[in-house]
Design brief:
This protein is of the alpha/beta class. Helix content is 35%, strand content 16%. The strands form 5 sheets. Strands 2-10-9-6-5-3-4 form a 7-stranded mixed beta sheet, sandwiched between helices. The chain starts with 19 loop residues before the first strand and ends in a 7-residue tail after the last helix. The chain binds ligand T4K. The site of ligand T4K has 24 residues, from helix 3 and helix 4.
Length: 390
């Protein structure tokens, strides 16, 4: 029988020789990308909705299981312009446990974020707390499928229907996520995906909106291209948020890689879960039944009382072993100076999550032995209360 992780923790584990970061972007074979580059060099169409743009948009429409997709040069601009296209300017109920891009997009779109606490299990906006925050100025709910874990889409839609609100999802982490085999983009009025380099599927920088209301497509085409219609007329104050042909080429090739990368991550997550479940005070974030997720992050919750170290002490201890997990998402959005006024600390579950969650290194190329070593380091730090390092 293999010795248990905990019996092996008397010896100080050796630090990694080179840093182990939270992620390492996936790339397609360079020859395939070069072939696209040659085509672009030959055609001299570099941006403004060229053939690669059309191809990627079509491919994504099929993969995301939606009627329409529009591409953008990053997820943040996609979200801002999506909100603009939906005409949302009032209050929007959203989560504080997210990347700053979520509430910032609301402000840039001219709306007001109203922060709602999260469900402690799913870490997504808690539908049971939304209704209490609805006022005559409320226009929408902006949920975030944090770490690719879906929001309670049915409960959110029921509230939206009752109060005639729009529903927008920030699915920056949720590429390929499905609920009971239904693609995540099927829910709500609009879904944003980020295609940043650190994501399962990426275009280096980029993002898209997926939506079923085809009328929004024309408005979005204008909003991301200065508001220019038919080459000359300017019909609204749009931005420049177009995805260029090189980004689209990366996307076309990355679509062939994302599924493979996700498969590679499955045994890695399994290994983490198997080893970390032996450690008291460390809980792996699990998915609800029926959900298949993006395998974007490997998140753990650190219970200081049981583990013996706080999340921050664990992070510091791992850093000393040359391992660099990330505190996604700390600080809480409601603690940013710009949003402090927007909440009266009614978000205890989100605050706990921001203080306890840690995302461990997780990407297809990380070796299973490295995961075993990281788990051993965590066990060692907990058992020795980090004495050696802290
Ligand atoms: N909504 C949500 C919920 C989001 O999480 C995000 C973005 C957005 C909206 C906005 O979408 P975009 O506008 O970004 O499309 C990273 C990403 O930059 C950001 O896209 C992502 N969320 C966020 C959760 O993570 P940082 O500040 O942590 O990135 P950075 O540069 O520290 O990179 C993380 C690690 O990855 C580093 O340890 C190094 C490694 N790395 C990174 C890059 C960029 C590489 O090895 N190579 C690279 O090229 O935000």
């Amino acid at each position: 029988m293999q010795p248990s992780l905990l019996t092996k923790t008397k010896m100080t584990p050796a630090p990694f020789a080179s840093p182990i970061l939270i992620t390492r972007p996936t790339l397609p074979p360079i020859e395939r990308f070069e072939a696209h580059l040659k085509e672009v060099w030959f055609n001299r169409v570099l941006t403004n909705q060229g053939s690669k743009h059309r191809q990627l948009e079509n491919n994504l429409t099929t993969i995301l299981g939606t009627r329409n997709v529009r591409l953008f040069n990053n997820g943040t601009l996609a979200l801002i312009l999506g909100l603009k296209a939906l005409g949302i300017r009032g209050e929007v109920i959203t989560t504080p446990f997210t990347f700053p891009a979520t509430p910032h997009s609301l402000v840039w779109a001219g709306a007001t974020p109203v922060f709602c606490d999260i469900d402690p299990m799913s870490l997504c906006i808690d539908p049971n707390r939304i209704e209490a925050l609805i006022t005559p100025r409320t226009e929408a709910i902006l949920g975030v499928h944090v770490y690719g874990i879906p929001c309670d889409v049915e409960a959110i839609q029921a509230i939206a229907n009752k109060y005639s609100l729009k529903v927008i999802y920030d699915a920056a982490h949720a590429f390929l996520t499905e609920i009971d085999d239904i693609p995540i983009a099927s829910f709500g009025d609009m879904t944003m995906f980020s295609f940043h380099a650190t994501k399962l599927f990426h275009t280096i920088e980029g993002g898209c909106l997926a939506f079923n209301n085809t009328e929004l497509g024309e408005i979005l085409n204008l909003l991301k291209n200065f508001g220019i219609k038919d080459g000359e007329a300017v019909v609204m104050p749009g931005l420049n948020a177009k995805m260029n042909e090189i980004q689209c080429a990366m996307g076309i090739e990355m679509l062939k890689e994302a599924g493979v990368e996700r498969e590679r991550r499955k045994p890695l997550r399994k290994k983490y879960v198997e080893l970390l479940s032996e450690i008291e005070g460390i809980d792996c974030i699990v998915l609800p039944d029926g959900v298949s997720d993006s395998l974007q992050y490997m998140a753990i919750r650190v219970d200081e009382n049981k583990f013996g170290l706080s999340r921050d002490q664990l992070q510091e201890g791992l850093n000393n072993f040359n391992v660099f997990p990330r505190r996604y998402f700390f600080p809480l959005c409601t603690d940013y100076e710009c949003y402090k006024e927007a909440v009266n600390d009614g978000v205890p579950a989100a605050r706990r999550a921001a203080n306890q969650l840690l995302c461990l290194p997780f990407y297809g190329e990380i070796e299973i032995e490295a995961i075993a070593r990281i788990a051993e380091m965590i066990a060692y730090l907990g058992k020795n209360k980090g004495d050696h390092f802290l």
